């Protein structure tokens, strides 16, 4: 599933010059967006105590934000903005924006809308009404206002206990292209009481329903939309299901984004026309922890969360509402990987190709990569690497073949959508790699993924 882009957070402005080495080190991590390293550093009491209070407050806020601790982020951001707003200069806008996002992630949609609208009003008053910030934030204000009026978005109606949900391996879309090996994971659902199966997709930042299925489920339309990015960019209207049920679990007021998957390519549209609805991260965050038993064909949602055995996070929530995994290659070099159970194949990105061009071309077999997604079809040059291994959460799994997407089309030009589809990551972890682990724990409370 291609990522759904809501708004890309403006880069933090350079921090004030500081003398202490700890401040410089933490400031560098923040400025360079090295969030996994920042999160590890901020777990160390000695590091926190050595920092200037303002730098500590910023780092603490960002660690909470990117590692899905919105309640803690709200408290930290309120302290930071209350004490150091004048000293932070241009960073104030970024931190205030994060506060709005984390208020919404905590379910305080009205407060989030009020804050973000005040930021927009300030920017307009300063003559920046046409800025990317205003254009990105204003639609969020409308969404949050409507969510606030509904009350209790994705509100759980089921008791807290263990749930076991059959995972259905479905090959229908892939077989239509002649690929008999690839498949997606589907789960049986009821949307407003209507039975169906949906793709269970960690790569979807929102729940999605194809436009042709909207009438089937009786969804309620809102006056808001999301910008959805695939091969192209399209607006998708937000609609709400009164209830969603999955394997004994049930939620009220569940938003879906209506998607038009047509590409304009006759052969591709035969496949995209088969696209089912998608259960994405909003429901998964409510589940908290998911145990994928690929050997047993079952998804387990435990009653109690499994404590993190890693000592730090290796899973991150991005600004575009996706997940990134901190993995390693066999030489111990870090790899940031987009986490996408909606995709079968693990693919390395144009960013990875650019940074490893000589090595890729030395051992890779020249190939082409055909992708069909929302808004169009893309054909790019690629290389097929022989056996490649990945280390995730201390465990290693290997694939006999991995594609590296160069992002370069058949005319020799870099396709602009290619890099953005990976969210700045080195690649995408798909089902083919996850299934090599057999059983996997994905904990979205403590933000880690490990082999179980």
Explain what this protein looks like in three dimensions.
- This protein is of the alpha+beta class and 452 residues long.
- The protein is 34% helix and 32% strand.
- The chain has 16 helices and 22 strands.
- It has helices at 21-31, 35-41, 45-50, 53-66, 70-88, 91-105, 109-125, 132-150, 172-175, 214-217, 266-272, 281-287, 350-355, 357-363, 416-420, 431-434, and strands spanning 155-156, 163-166, 168-170, 184-191, 194-200, 208-210, 220-229, 233-246, 249-259, 278-279, 289-293, 298-301, 315-317, 323-328, 334-339, 347-348, 365-373, 376-392, 395-409, 427-429, 439-443, 448-451.
- The strands form three sheets. Strands 1, 3, 4, 5, 6, 7, 8, 9 and 10 form a nine-stranded mixed sheet that branches. The chain has an eight-stranded mixed sheet with strand order 13-14-15-20-16-19-18-17. Strands 2-12-11-21-22 form a five-stranded antiparallel sheet, with helices on one face.
- Helix 2 (35-41) crosses helix 4 and helix 4 (53-66) packs antiparallel against helix 5.
- It is globular, with a radius of gyration of 22 Å.
- Residues 1-19 have low confidence and may be disordered.
């Amino acid at each position: 599933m291609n990522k759904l882009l809501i708004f890309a957070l403006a880069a933090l402005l350079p921090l004030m010059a500081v003398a202490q080495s700890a401040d410089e080190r933490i400031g560098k991590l923040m400025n360079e967006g090295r969030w996994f390293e920042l999160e590890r550093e901020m777990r160390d009491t000695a590091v926190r105590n050595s920092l200037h209070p303002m730098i500590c407050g910023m780092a603490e806020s960002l660690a909470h934000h990117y590692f899905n601790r919105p309640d803690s982020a709200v408290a930290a951001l309120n302290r930071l903005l209350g004490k150091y707003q004048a000293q932070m200069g241009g960073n104030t806008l970024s931190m205030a924006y994060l506060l709005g996002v984390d208020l919404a992630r905590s379910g305080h949609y009205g407060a989030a809308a009020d804050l973000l609208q005040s930021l927009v009003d300030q920017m307009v008053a300063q003559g920046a009404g046409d800025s990317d910030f205003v254009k990105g934030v204003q639609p969020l204000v409308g969404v949050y206002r409507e969510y606030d009026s509904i009350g209790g978005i994705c509100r759980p109606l089921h008791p807290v206990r263990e749930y076991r949900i059959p995972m259905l391996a479905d090959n229908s879309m892939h077989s239509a292209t002649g690929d008999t090996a690839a498949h997606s994971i589907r789960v049986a659902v009821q949307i407003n009481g209507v039975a169906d199966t949906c793709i269970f997709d960690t790569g979807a930042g929102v729940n999605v329903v194809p436009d042709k299925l909207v009438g089937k489920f009786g969804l309620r339309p809102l006056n808001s939309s999301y910008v959805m990015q695939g091969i192209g960019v399209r607006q998708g209207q937000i609609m709400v299901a009164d209830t969603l049920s999955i394997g004994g679990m049930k939620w009220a007021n569940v938003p879906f984004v209506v998607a038009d998957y047509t590409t304009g390519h006759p052969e591709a549209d035969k496949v995209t026309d088969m696209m089912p609805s998608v259960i994405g991260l909003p429901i998964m965050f409510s589940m908290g922890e998911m145990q994928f038993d690929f050997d047993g064909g079952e998804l387990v949602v435990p009653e109690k969360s499994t404590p993190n055995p890693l000592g730090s996070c290796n899973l991150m929530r991005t600004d575009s509402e996706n997940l990134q995994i901190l993995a390693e290659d066999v030489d111990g070099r870090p790899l940031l990987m987009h986490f996408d159970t909606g995709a079968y194949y693990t693919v390395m990105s144009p960013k990875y190709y650019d940074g490893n061009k000589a090595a890729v071309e030395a051992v890779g077999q020249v190939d082409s990569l055909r992708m069909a997604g929302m808004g169009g079809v893309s054909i790019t040059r690629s290389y097929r690497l022989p056996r490649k291994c990945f280390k995730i959460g201390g465990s290693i799994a290997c694939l006999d073949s991995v594609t590296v997407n160069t992002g370069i089309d058949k005319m020799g030009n870099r396709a602009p959508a290619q890099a953005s589809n990976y969210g700045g990551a080195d690649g995408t972890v798909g089902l083919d790699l996850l299934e090599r682990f057999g059983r996997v724990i994905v904990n979205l409370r403590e933000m880690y993924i490990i082999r179980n």
